[in-house]
Amino acid sequence: MSSDDADLFVAFYRAEYPGMVRLAHAVTGSDEDAEDIVQDAFARLQTRLATIDNPGGYLRTTVVHLCRDRERRLGRERSVRRLMPLPKSLSLGASEVFDVLFSLPYRQRAVLVMRYWGDWSEAEIAEAIGCRPGTVKTLASRGLVRLKREMPG
Amino acid sequence: MTDSEMEVRLRAALSELAEATPLENPDAPRLGGFSDGVHCDRPPADRAAGSVPSISGASRQPTGRAAWLDIKVLALVACVVIIALGIFSVSQISHGRSSLTTHTTVPAPFGSVTVPDFVGQGPLSVNTEARNHGLTIHVHYVRSRKPTASVISQAPPPGSQVPVGGVVTLVISNGNAPPPVLGATETVPNVVGLAFDKVLTVLQTAGLTNSLANLCPPTATYVRVIAQSPPAGSIVPQGSRVSITSTCS
Q1: Complex ipTM, two decimals?
Q2: Hey, is the C-beta of B182 within 8 angstroms of any chain A C-beta?
């Protein structure tokens, strides 16, 4: 990696790190895993940054894919899975939302987070989770329906 | 519960979680293997004032043996400068004129530097110039059509005098903005009351550029915006310039 690439990477890292950790935290429910996932994503990007047209999009996609990989791994290791504690500072209303959100299938949950926290476009979400924009609409709609149905009150 | 109520509740919960997400210092990547380029040290008082955005460079304060070595090096440099000035003055006086009267321009105040023009530069040249001038660089990323990682705008403007170690805020393109639309207009956002180093990002995100209506003295820094022109809510062509007036510290 040249010095120019390294400087670009450092600037990119500083700009994108906080948002990516928050995204991964909201998708996975684990702040520890979120940081590991984002570090892993940056490590994958590190040597390729200068050759990628849209590094922000590439990073988002990588983070979302790594969250999915974690989900699959946890699925295989369900016997040792533990419930991730939510931050104690969350209000009761927010905790209720996350109790249901984290029980949703991975793609529905990821779409809801990207759409309602990240305000990403359907095209950006579709690129990140590898589906058509129409599927994003369907996943978001089903996720919302299930949230409404299972939320208390 | 309606769809929109659920959406509002979900947004609020996600915002709460984002606020509560503990973040390691993003300035300290664990990956290693690259140089930490986009910052220089800045004084502790500056950090304590909280004027620095979270994505800016962290300061490294020398400690213990390193700090002692730094003091010795500084003392040595100061001695050399004093001796050189003494020799220069004696030589001028021996030629029958005062060294003070030979200056044709007023030198910059001691401890201040002239801000170079960073606009259009890439990260490498920004780092080199910042180090050469003893400046602290704060970086903001925005969506832009300019080449990725190039500097779009800066504050204070080129030619300004700032203290050694002073902060220059750069807005850098992440190169993924949508293509330009001919005849597009933008609504001017309200920037009055914002911290100075946030204004560039706000304007750039809104598709506008900035200009400074006032210049702070060389030893002061820009703090908060107290006036803007055109006013918030105005409809202007994309890329228009918004003139801002800032208080000085």
Answers
A1: 0.81
A2: no
